[in-house]
Amino acid sequence: MNESLVIRLGITQEEPVEWLVWSKGEEEIIASGTLVSAHELHELRERAGGRPVVALVPGSAVIFRRVRLPGKYNRQSAAALPYLLEEQIASDVESLHLVVLAHQGQEVDLMAVDNQQMLRWLGWLEAAGLKSLQLLPDVLALPQASDGWSALQLGKVWLLRQGPHQGLVADEVLLGLLLSTQLEPVTIHSHTPPPALAGANWLEADPELPMLLLAREALRGQVNLLQGAFRPQTEYSRHWLQWRKVVVVAVALLLVTLGQRGLALYQLDSQDKALKAEIREVYTRIFPGETRIVNVRSQVEQHLRLLGGASQSGVLLFLTELAPTFAEVPGLKPEVLRFDVERGELRLQVTAPGFTEMERFRELAGKRFEVQQGEVRSTKGRVEGALVLKGKSS
């Protein structure tokens, strides 16, 4: 069939759902619209009819990473991917659904999303009587730029595709911070009017209806989160009971084959525990307000990357002075730290349970530093804000 129904879901069931029916043969939109929330997905059952259904999901809920295997990629080495990803993210990899996007030699590009979020998306579709054979992140439904990134603004956020298998979602503030960390200005092909942000060469791409732009690329691409445990059942699934015993035996043999490798990985993990405990102790001294510590190495590396080429002595001086302040306001958490060597400024992007904690931190920090407060806003029960700290003039 030349017609397809493309749906863009949100992270929560209360978020609006955009949809479009596209005719590939006629190269035209048959119908389009926006549902108030995913509770109304059943209204698209008639629209779907016998058409294939493609579901787009927010790229902000998906993790994109490139990992390097000890050897070439194959079925056996693929079992090590969760261990390698664990070194790069501050999340429990056992709760994630991993999908390999591409591999070349020892390099593997993959994406990951929380298993419970996958179940929620599929549950909404199933409750509405819709069956999608393809589920993909919206950022990978942007056209890929031959040079640089491609971008599209949807509401208050920007979708950016950075390469064949990489993308991100950011509001204008975070996008500005991201661009400021680039060594050289990035060329960005924007399909919506570009923002007034430095750090990038903004080029205006051909304007187009956002959902049409995403639908076209989604229908061309092969990216699909519906793999592994979430692969849609086909007519062959009815033979599962007949072949189940054979599969169980095959899996058992595979586990035996992987036994030695799994044991070696387990032993290496045990040897690392003592060192990680020491690193965790040092980490809590430097960042006493950050109570949720999942992967110390990954979190420290994230802080250091955001600090860029800052003078280590200057950064440590600021962090040492700030340690008691973070300890007195435990609810406040630093998300982004960046040190400007030339200005001698530490720039913080923080979150807190409420405005009281934000004001308390600013008051305490003001005893040691000159504090400038930027934009503060409340989002999903948390308060986000920007602060600039500079040593007081003697």
Automatic annotation (TrEMBL):
<feature type="domain" description="GspL periplasmic">
    <location>
        <begin position="237"/>
        <end position="390"/>
    </location>
</feature>
<dbReference type="InterPro" id="IPR024230">
    <property type="entry name" value="GspL_cyto_dom"/>
</dbReference>
<dbReference type="GO" id="GO:0015627">
    <property type="term" value="C:type II protein secretion system complex"/>
</dbReference>
<keyword id="KW-0653">Protein transport</keyword>
<dbReference type="InterPro" id="IPR007812">
    <property type="entry name" value="T2SS_protein-GspL"/>
</dbReference>
<dbReference type="Pfam" id="PF12693">
    <property type="entry name" value="GspL_C"/>
</dbReference>
<keyword id="KW-1133">Transmembrane helix</keyword>
<comment type="function">
    <text>Inner membrane component of the type II secretion system required for the energy-dependent secretion of extracellular factors such as proteases and toxins from the periplasm.</text>
</comment>
<feature type="domain" description="GspL cytoplasmic actin-ATPase-like">
    <location>
        <begin position="5"/>
        <end position="233"/>
    </location>
</feature>
<dbReference type="GO" id="GO:0009276">
    <property type="term" value="C:Gram-negative-bacterium-type cell wall"/>
</dbReference>
<dbReference type="GO" id="GO:0015628">
    <property type="term" value="P:protein secretion by the type II secretion system"/>
</dbReference>
<keyword id="KW-0813">Transport</keyword>
<dbReference type="InterPro" id="IPR043129">
    <property type="entry name" value="ATPase_NBD"/>
</dbReference>
<keyword id="KW-0812">Transmembrane</keyword>
<dbReference type="GO" id="GO:0005886">
    <property type="term" value="C:plasma membrane"/>
</dbReference>
<keyword id="KW-1003">Cell membrane</keyword>
<dbReference type="Pfam" id="PF05134">
    <property type="entry name" value="T2SSL"/>
</dbReference>
<comment type="similarity">
    <text>Belongs to the GSP L family.</text>
</comment>
<keyword id="KW-0997">Cell inner membrane</keyword>
<protein>
    <recommendedName>
        <fullName>Type II secretion system protein L</fullName>
    </recommendedName>
</protein>
<dbReference type="InterPro" id="IPR025691">
    <property type="entry name" value="GspL_pp_dom"/>
</dbReference>
<keyword id="KW-0472">Membrane</keyword>
